[in-house]
Amino acid sequence: MKTVIIGAVAGGTSAAAKARRNAENAEIKIFDMDYDISYSGCGLPYYIGEEIGDRGDLTPRNAEFFKKKYNVDVFRRHEVLKINAEDKVLTIKNLDTNDIFNESYDKLVIATGAKPIVPNILGAEKSNVFYLRNVKQADKIKEYIQTHNPKSAVIVGTGFIGLEMTENLEDLGIKVTLVERLSQVTPGLDKDMSVYVERYLKSKDINMVLGDSVVELKGEALVKQVVLQSGKVIDADFVIMSIGVKPNVKLAEEAGIELGSNGSIKVNTKMMTNIEDIYACGDCAESYSVITKKPSYRPLGSTANKMGRIAGDQLSGGNLEFRGILGTGIFKIFDMTVAQTGLTEREAIGEGYEPVICHNIKPDKPEYYHGKEMVIKAIADKNTGKLLGVQIVGYTGVDKRIDVFITAITFGAKVEDLFHLDLAYAPPFSTTKDPVAYTGMILDNAINRGRELITPDELNKLINNGNDVTVIDARVNKQYEESHVDSAINIPHDQIRKKADKLDKEKIVITYCNKGVTGNAAQNILINKGFKKVYNISGGHKNYKEQIK
């Protein structure tokens, strides 16, 4: 059997390796347009920022490696021009010699990846406007920095790559201005979590222009000024476009291969397309959500490797099947870590769930052992109690917690299950009640035990709509005087039992403290004394003041 693979990065090379492990006598060939193969695209910002000093660390496996270890023939700088699915023949061009030839196949894997979204902006063709998708593009950025010694840059887009590049350019002494067309940074997060990232970026003196977009890049040979839709003009020595990618599917589409609703190649759980003996994997292929079971497109190297392994297994007689994704992502920006998995609040609402939201602000380990606070936003379904999604912003221990949440969601955990997890504890690693367990406790209380939460935004809407609400600040008087929710009265926790009888039990009551724990204690007292409707502010005053400015 002869297997041909188009594309030699994560998905394609994973498919080749798995196919070889299953079938020693198969003929396997890979064709790729690029100079580099099997590289770490996620490491490119750190290569530019000189955190990774050796280019070879990004490209540890070359064509010789694949031939020697897997007996796979890899042809770089070869573009597949056409797929003739009926005759099972490819038309291929050698980009170095311009020779064109045909190659037959028995099984075909399309792993053509994704390509940067190129906006229709006047001046975007200038040579100091960069996109970061492969190692050659990273080389060009590094070379430009070394030869032109730039002092400023504009990065368009505030997703993973945009913020990772911000850190690395700033570390090189290049002043960055971020431009984002949305009104928040990190579009993958809900607004109430992105504010924490925005505040941190401000503390690092990062210029940000939100709710605006680029309309023109001015300059003679090189860009010198970035003109925004608002009329604002930003001086810049170069520009990095980081507004996302789209699946590279032209070749597949011309061959009659069906595309999904998001424009990527439609595949089943076996990575098969609608045409027999043609598979697709990686950033060009469609995923689906573990939660909703609906098509999804979240191109990541981890997913591409998984898909590639499944495609290689299937075409060589195996039975691996794709189980979907949660759209998990994690990145760092200076000392801050940002992670998310599953559905955001807005996605949960859009999918018809009745979400219950909690904001849990806890240190990753005891403060006496250098613990640092993280903010965990968790989204659960009120009707089933299942965990739907989590977003975390913090400094240490974020990766550990997000991975526990990912595992829980993948296996259909309910919020009360989180408390019962036997998680590792010792002061250098965690608190006695881990933030994961505490998140489960908060949501369990809200969904199953009548201790309902209210977000800062929901509280403001409640008040602005004219509802008669009693807001109780359960902190000590000094904290109340420093800052408090408008219209709140101060009844410290240790006085609530005495003063509760003077309050109207029929009115809606909102309690809060600094981060939520004492607010919940006050809420318990009032509920146990017969108050009809008592909410606790999610994340307490600390979260409230971040949201309401």
TrEMBL record:
Molecular functions (GO terms)? oxidoreductase activity
Q: Membrane among the record's keywords?
A: no
Name the cofactor(s) required for activity, per the record.
Answer: FAD
In terms of superkingdom, the source organism counts as: Bacteria
Identify the residues that the record assigns to the Rhodanese domain, covering every copy.
465-549
Query: What Pfam families does the database record attribute to this sequence?
Result: Pyr_redox_2, Pyr_redox_dim, Rhodanese
* The keyword Oxidoreductase is annotated on this UniProt entry: yes
Q: Which UniProt keywords apply?
A: FAD, Flavoprotein, Oxidoreductase, Redox-active center
**Signal peptide from the UniProt entry:** none
Give the PROSITE patterns listed for this entry. RHODANESE_3
What does the record list as coiled-coil region(s)? none
Q: What's the name of the protein? A: FAD-dependent oxidoreductase
Q: Which organism is it from?
A: Clostridium thailandense
